[in-house]
Amino acid sequence: MTLATLYLSNDTSSRAVGADRLAKQLQQQPDVRLIRTSSRGAFFLEPMIEQDVTEGREGRMVWCNVTASDLPNIVAGRGGVPLQSVPFLSAQSRFTFSNFGITQPLALDEYRTRGGFEGLEKALDMARDSIIEELKTAGLRGRGGAAYPVWSKWQAARQTESDEKFVVVNADEGDAGTYCDRMVMEGDPFRLIEGMLICAHTIGATKGYVYCRQEYPAAAGAMRAALRKVEEAGLLELNGRPFAIDVVLGAGSYVCGEETALLESLEGRRGVVRAKPPYPAVSGLYRKPTIVSNVLTFATVPNILTRGGAWHASLGTDRSRGTIALQIGGRVAQPGLVEIPFGLSLRKVLDQFGGGMAADSRFKAVQVGGPLGSLFPESKLDIPICYDSFSDAGAILGHGGIVVYDEDTDMVELARHFMAFTADESCGKCTPCRIGSVRGRELLDLVHGGRATKAELTLLTDLADTMRTASLCALGGRAPYPVLTAIEHFPGEFQTRLRAQEQEQAER
Amino acid sequence: MPDQPSLDRNLDQLLSEECGRSGPSDKPNILKVLLAVQERMGYVPIRSIPQIARTVGATEADVAGVLSYYPDLRTVAPGRHVIRICMGESCFANRCSRVLRALNDHLGIVIGETDAGRRFTLEKVYCMGNCAVAPTVAVDQDLFGRVGPEQIPSIVDCYR
Hints:
The complex is a heterodimer of chains A (about 500) and B (about 160).
Chain A: E1 4-9, H1 12-16, H2 19-27, E2 32-37, E3 49-52, E4 60-63, H3 71-75, E5 81-82, H4 87-90, H5 108-113, H6 118-125, H7 128-138, H8 150-159, E6 166-171, H9 180-187, H10 189-203, E7 207-212, H11 217-232, E8 237-238, E9 241-242, E10 244-249, H12 259-266, E11 290-294, H13 295-307, H14 309-313, E12 323-330, E13 336-341, H15 346-353, E14 363-368, E15 375-376, H16 387-392, E16 401-406, H17 411-425, H18 431-448, H19 454-470, H20 474-478, H21 480-489, H22 491-507
Parallel strand pairs in A: 1-2, 6-7, 6-11, 7-10, 12-16
Antiparallel strand pairs in A: 1-3, 3-4, 4-5, 8-9, 12-13, 14-15, 14-16
Chain B: H1 4-20, H2 30-41, H3 49-56, H4 60-69, E1 81-86, H5 89-93, H6 96-107, E2 120-125, E3 137-139, E4 142-144, H7 152-156
Parallel strand pairs in B: 1-2
Antiparallel strand pairs in B: 1-3, 3-4
Helix pairs in contact in B: 1-2, 1-3, 3-4
């Protein structure tokens, strides 16, 4: 009897669309060896089953959107398409996500076979200042949203004298529409650990934390399991001393994704934003020098050490070096994870990778950068995906989330949804955000209910201006952007609601 | 209240365990303690605030402040199963409002409520990172993607 080796993703989103049910059936078949891998991120094709092509040749065959009735054919090797023929995947430049769909997330030997821990080995042989220099050459900017130069943070933490220093992973991926950090933790946890160890070695850290949102139980579980494996292999140590890394769960607060609020939460208090400076690199967790960076930032570091800063700098655009992990969602035909060098236009990303709109829907707007990101209408899609173009346009790339809305979307309702979100999530420390978001929601309630006049819209714009200029952090400061861009690009929808009200008054 | 002494004893034991595992600082980690209490009891009863405050060496206001801040900390016991519907943007774009309506109709409760039989509590959440297969509904730890309103009965009815 020949044994068919089949690969099936164990990612949360794959499981949410039936991967476990397929796995259960396959595991009952004696002629099948099932390997649960990470996901390639082509979620529109999931559940997806892969099989090695005939012996002696490289590559895999893939069966997409698999249902139970497809299994006999798959086991027999009938049908399927070569993996390289899926343009969504073949057109990407996978570096940080190079192991996805290939390795078993918790197989340390597989990670090492594919170059894992080479970055750390290299770093341990380098002078600490040279590591920082390498990151500077690489031009790596923080991937969580603020895009701050990573080398500069590391240098500040390295140069600050202290008996204790910390490395904290911001795994509170709260921006709706983003999931690449979850994928890294579930799918390639050793890469994150390697990045943390390189950072810890460079700055002289004494302890590490992964602050993971409670909504990601599988990610936290994978991180804990991976840490145990690394520890058992004797790799969880630096310069002869054990280096402990704890996985800590959040409790559902969006603002805890802001670095100082995260630190407050890690210390067990209300996750309220601290005023900066001092920055965490100088005074962070328990007021000690602390590097707080996003999951993806740490996961990008090992490749930079292995391949060199110049390699990283050769990808992307002038001030946005390397690759960006875009997470396409909403009403597109092909939602999923896309890793490409910075610089492609938003339009091309949506066409080439997003595959256009979902069946029976027409494009209305796209939002980039999570719930605080600006909306773009069709006419603004030629913007290149890089930090500068976006900030020049008053927009943000944020954490790379892209959500497409179709023509049936009510922009007033959407604007109201954004303000309600901010009102729910405001930490309450600064007045513009705490009160502004509630007043903003109330004003949009009036518009939504057809009870507002033009004066209320003007008031909303004024309020937005105050929030934008006077809020302490990006939650209050950015919250007005999706609302204002909705009004700017779709004024008709707001005006119509007003007119209805004014007509009503005239009739009375 | 007949169960008061046993609550106190359980809590005392739990709190002493939790406080034994202190972090790098001597200060108590209130959030960690509250999450541990909730893990054990399903919620954090308001009446346990003084006891928690005493044990961790914080003021009652500190404990109450942390308890009221985090959306995931509950002060009321939930139903046997917690259903969370995602209201993130990708789910919004994919019409999660229709799924929510189906949940409301099928369960007879709105967000924040528990049904009369204490079988289900319905909650909203902003994003579960399942955006590529939106809309998303979670029942306890089970996640469902690409959920259409018509699937709601078949999804929730198997949870007793």
